[in-house]
Every structure is written in C-alpha cells, then in structure tokens.
Design goal:
About 45% of the residues lie in helices and about 20% in strands. The protein is an alpha/beta fold. The protein folds into two domains: about 140 residues, Response regulator (Rossmann fold); about 140 residues, Response regulator (Rossmann fold, 3-Layer(aba) Sandwich).
C-alpha cells in the first residue's frame, strides 16, 4: 500500500513539474514575434523603449549611460517623448530571456540590448522590432544573428594585439596566463586572438585556465603563482563580476593583470588598450535616435566598431609592481591615478 502511494506521489510531482515547464515555455513563446518585414518606426507622441542589460557590471553601466545621454542630446527624453523600461538580468540568461519575451508581449517600439547575452536574448524574440546592440562581442558573425535584419549597433572587439604589445614593453612578459569561464563561447572565440597575439606574434608562452562554473575564479587565479609573469582577463561577464577578487588574489601572488578594457584598469589591472564604453553607448544612442526618427531601418545603419582605442594605465598598480613606463607610452597613455577610497581621475 505504501509503495502504491509513493508511486502516485511521484507521478503527481512529475506532472506538476512538466506543467510548470510548459507554462513557462508558453509565457516566453507568447512574446516571440513572427517573421515580418522590418519597417521604419511609425510616428507617435511617446515611444516605448525596452532596455535589456545583461549584468550590473561597471562596463555595461557606462554603455547604458552613454546610450541614454546620446538620446537626450537629440531631444529624446524619458518621461517626455519616451517611456524607457530597464531590465537588468544580473548575469542570469533565464531572466534575460523572460524579460525579452515580456518586452515582446508589450510590443515595444525599440529594444536596446547592452552586452552579448542581452543581444542574444533579444534575438530569440524579436524579428521585426528594431534592436540596437551595445558592446556585443563578434556582433556581425554571431550565429544567433543569422536571418535577422532588425539589428544594428556597436560591436566590441578587444584590441588583443595592441594590449599584448603594450604589456610586453611595460611588464617585460615571457609567460602569459589567461583566465576565462569554461563553456563561455564568446571567451573561447576570443582565445583564438589571444593565442595569435601571445604565441605567434609576441613569442610568449601561454597558460590557459578554463575556470569551471562551480569554482570561484579567484581560486584559479591564485593557483597561477610562480607559473606566469602576468595574467590576461577576458571580457566574459563572469570574469567581470569576480574581477576585484581576481585582482586581489593575483596581486598577493605578485602577478600583474592585463585587462581587456579600461574599466578593468579602473578596478586594478595595470593596463589595457581598449574602447571607451561610454562612447560605445553614445554611438549606439545616436543610431537609436535615427531609428526613432522613422526615416531609416536597422539594415541602413551598419554595425559599427570604435576605431580609436585608448592606452589606459593604472598608476597605482604601476607603483605596486615597481614598473616604469617607456617615454613614448608615457606620452600616449591616459593615466589613471587611483587613491584609496577615491575614484579614478585622469
């Protein structure tokens, strides 16, 4: 008798789980657009904007700020002629997918997607609504973009060769380590550039560490002590979330960090050659402004890449590791002087 009751309970719980999954799928599927021609945004008094942000990391915050300020500079203001709803996924792909589906059900006029994961979530829902991607890795070649004609924006491509060239001159590196998240496709794609820059072009040895999802990245970083002269941190969002802990662990081990972007320099990396995230967002905001004018469609606005990367140097980290800057790099670099408890200043 007890065995029969247990079996009934098992099947009841199984049916409940299946029902919940089906309900979730229906909610998300209900937001998906059918394939249709991409047309200019029709004129209206107040436009509905959905802004998907992949995570709350400083890099993406700067992109969002630049995007909104570009819109405001062209006369597009939240509470006036725009209603902007912001959804931050907090690094959770499921939350981003649900947020994109909700924006689809609400029939937003335009979607802004900050970061690669947010853009991918938007691609899973929107076929005809204009989407402006901001800071999307490998934007043009992303497999999830195939078949979409409703995307434009600004891509993010780390300046790996320039980063390693500057690092070799300042840090005198022979052995480079690289940390990235195991299973992160974008980080693994970036590794192709890292290998080319470090091994083929710079003659460095390269130690690659794929950090398992269940291991704190700072633990993997600390294990590199004595094996490398410096560590390169990729731009995947998990590394960004743990960046401060990674830098602290490596600094205790006497290993400087080469960052993929300037925000990493603000947070403890010695240097980077990178795009400016605020300017990236600003350029995307200008594209959104043109779309809101109703005179163009995304296809007429090619996906852009910044062409003027900055060499950024953290002078506090330079002093910590007793480094010297060659004269030409001293003249060229944007130097950040960081003091305890104080923000970066140029």
């Amino acid at each position: 008798m007890i065995g029969i009751r247990m079996k009934r309970l098992f099947w009841l719980l199984l049916l409940l789980c299946i029902g919940s999954l089906l309900a979730m799928g229906l909610r998300m599927g209900a937001g998906r657009e059918k394939t249709a021609a991409v047309r200019p945004i029709p004129s209206k008094a107040v436009y509905e904007i959905g802004l998907l942000q992949g995570d709350g990391v400083p890099e993406q915050d700067r992109m969002r700020e630049g995007f909104l300020e570009a819109l405001a500079g062209d006369g597009w203001e939240d509470g006036k002629n725009l209603h902007i709803e912001v959804l931050n996924g907090g690094g959770n792909k499921g939350a981003l997918a649900e947020g994109a589906a909700r924006f689809g059900r609400e029939r937003k006029d335009l979607i802004a997607a900050v970061g690669t994961e947010a853009a991918e979530a938007a691609a899973g829902v929107f076929q005809s609504t204009p989407v402006v991607g901001i800071g999307v890795l490998n934007f043009q070649s992303a497999p999830w973009l195939k078949g979409h004609q409703n995307f434009t924006g600004v891509t993010s491509l780390p300046e790996v060769v320039q980063q390693f060239a500057a690092a070799r001159r300042i840090l005198h590196i022979r052995r480079m380590g690289v940390l990235y998240s195991e299973g992160d496709q974008e980080a693994e794609n970036l590794l192709v550039q890292v290998r080319s820059a470090a091994v083929e072009r710079m003659g460095m040895s390269l130690t690659e560490v794929a950090v398992p999802q269940d291991q704190p990245p700072e633990e993997a970083a600390a294990a590199l002590a004595g094996q490398v002269d410096a560590v390169y941190i990729t731009v995947d969002e998990r590394m960004q979330r743990h960046f401060k802990a990674i830098v602290d662990a490596l600094t205790r081990a006497g290993i400087p960090v080469v960052g993929s972007d300037d925000e990493m320099v603000r947070r403890g990396a010695v240097l980077s050659v990178s795009e400016d995230y605020y300017r990236m967002g600003f350029a995307a905001g200008k594209a959104a402004s043109k779309l809101l004018s109703g005179q163009v469609v995304p296809q007429e606005l090619p996906i852009r890449k910044q062409s003027d990367p900055n060499l950024v140097v953290n002078m506090a980290a330079v002093n910590t590791f007793h480094l010297g800057l060659p004269g030409d790099l001293w003249q060229k670099a944007r130097k950040l002087y960081l003091y305890d408890g104080q923000p970066a200043r140029p």
